[in-house]
């Protein structure tokens, strides 16, 4: 009998659960990829999505014409500096810290990897919403929807002036208006995107005949993540509600103090179910572009960060 063979009747020692450290290189990688994504196609798609959600009578062509009238190509980059940059640069850090902690504790309570991963993603999304995304999405929406001031012949206030005006009038609550809708969107986004991407990956493995331990190719990863990102747009009504709660568009028929439920009723009464899904097309496109950046460019970025910091990058993409 081999000396290394286990002795009958004895149980193998359980694998020790270890907490993976959150490295600087991981944070740098996430921030860099997010900054690239939002500065290229990310913000134009975000502006188009938000414009359609705020002006629900417009179709895609109408939204693009409306954005172009606000300053040509630059109209598609409203809210990029500083709000989208702040959101993008802090997104990875907040998500990684919180998601890593939540996933570890979920596993420590006996949750399988799949459930622990979803738990980490949802918890990270929740923390991100309340820590950074609330005021960033609010200010981006204000920037995008304040064009009516310019249309009336008045000079629209600058970015800092707008921020301070809201703070003086409504305080922190005004700056974080719509944050609860942002939180619901982020939690459902990360949960469904993670789960649906894994389902798509399993389908690709069956079609290609790859085993569970074999790595998927870059294009296979992109396809799986794009399917997950696209199908996770089922929660677009939450995004439309978020935009309505943060919008500075004046409507005397709109409730003065909007909640998630009152905003949903207002949108449905004016625009029906179709109105709740306004902007879903650019949102799907945004999800695909984010996937391409994080997956296709991820390997290249990992090599660059490792050379720069001398630190082995362990972040998954």
Automatic annotation (TrEMBL):
<dbReference type="InterPro" id="IPR018108">
    <property type="entry name" value="MCP_transmembrane"/>
</dbReference>
<feature type="repeat" description="Solcar">
    <location>
        <begin position="220"/>
        <end position="304"/>
    </location>
</feature>
<feature type="repeat" description="Solcar">
    <location>
        <begin position="22"/>
        <end position="104"/>
    </location>
</feature>
<dbReference type="InterPro" id="IPR053017">
    <property type="entry name" value="Mito_Cit/Oxoglu_Carrier"/>
</dbReference>
<keyword id="KW-0999">Mitochondrion inner membrane</keyword>
<keyword id="KW-0813">Transport</keyword>
<keyword id="KW-0472">Membrane</keyword>
<protein>
    <submittedName>
        <fullName>Mitochondrial DNA replication protein YHM2</fullName>
    </submittedName>
</protein>
<dbReference type="GO" id="GO:0016020">
    <property type="term" value="C:membrane"/>
</dbReference>
<keyword id="KW-1133">Transmembrane helix</keyword>
<comment type="similarity">
    <text>Belongs to the mitochondrial carrier (TC 2.A.29) family.</text>
</comment>
<feature type="repeat" description="Solcar">
    <location>
        <begin position="119"/>
        <end position="203"/>
    </location>
</feature>
<dbReference type="GO" id="GO:0015742">
    <property type="term" value="P:alpha-ketoglutarate transport"/>
</dbReference>
<keyword id="KW-0496">Mitochondrion</keyword>
<dbReference type="GO" id="GO:0006843">
    <property type="term" value="P:mitochondrial citrate transmembrane transport"/>
</dbReference>
<dbReference type="GO" id="GO:0005371">
    <property type="term" value="F:tricarboxylate secondary active transmembrane transporter activity"/>
</dbReference>
<dbReference type="GO" id="GO:0005739">
    <property type="term" value="C:mitochondrion"/>
</dbReference>
<dbReference type="Pfam" id="PF00153">
    <property type="entry name" value="Mito_carr"/>
</dbReference>
<keyword id="KW-0812">Transmembrane</keyword>
<dbReference type="InterPro" id="IPR023395">
    <property type="entry name" value="MCP_dom_sf"/>
</dbReference>
């Amino acid at each position: 009998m081999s000396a290394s063979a286990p002795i009958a009747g004895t149980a193998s020692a359980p694998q020790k659960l270890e907490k993976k450290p959150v490295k600087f290189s991981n944070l740098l990688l996430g921030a860099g990829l997010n900054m690239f994504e939002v500065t290229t196609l990310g913000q134009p798609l975000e502006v188009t999505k938000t414009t359609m959600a705020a002006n629900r009578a417009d179709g895609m062509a109408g939204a693009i014409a409306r954005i172009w009238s606000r300053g040509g190509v630059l109209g598609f980059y409203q809210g990029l500096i500083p709000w989208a940059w702040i959101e993008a640069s802090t997104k990875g850090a907040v998500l990684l810290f919180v998601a890593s902690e939540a996933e570890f504790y979920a596993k420590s309570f006996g949750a399988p990897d799949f459930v622990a991963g979803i738990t980490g993603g949802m918890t990270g999304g929740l923390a991100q919403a309340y820590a950074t995304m609330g005021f960033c999405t609010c200010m981006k929406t204000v920037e995008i929807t304040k064009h009516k001031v310019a249309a009336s012949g008045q000079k629209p206030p600058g970015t800092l002036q707008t921020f301070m005006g809201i703070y003086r009038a409504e305080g922190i609550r005004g700056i974080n208006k719509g944050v609860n809708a942002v939180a619901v969107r982020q939690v459902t986004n990360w949960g469904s995107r993670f789960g649906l991407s894994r389902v798509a990956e399993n389908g690709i493995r069956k079609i290609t005949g790859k085993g569970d331990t074999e790595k998927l190719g870059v294009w296979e990863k992109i396809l799986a993540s794009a399917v997950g990102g696209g199908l996770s747009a089922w929660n677009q009504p939450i995004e439309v509600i978020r935009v309505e709660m943060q919008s500075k568009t004046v409507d005397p028929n709109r409730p003065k103090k909007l909640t998630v439920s009152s905003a949903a009723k207002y949108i449905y009464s004016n625009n029906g179910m179709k109105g709740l899904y306004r902007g879903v097309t650019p949102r799907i496109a945004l999800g695909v572009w984010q996937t391409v950046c994080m997956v296709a460019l991820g390997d290249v970025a990992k090599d660059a960060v490792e050379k720069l910091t001398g630190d082995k990058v362990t972040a998954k993409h």
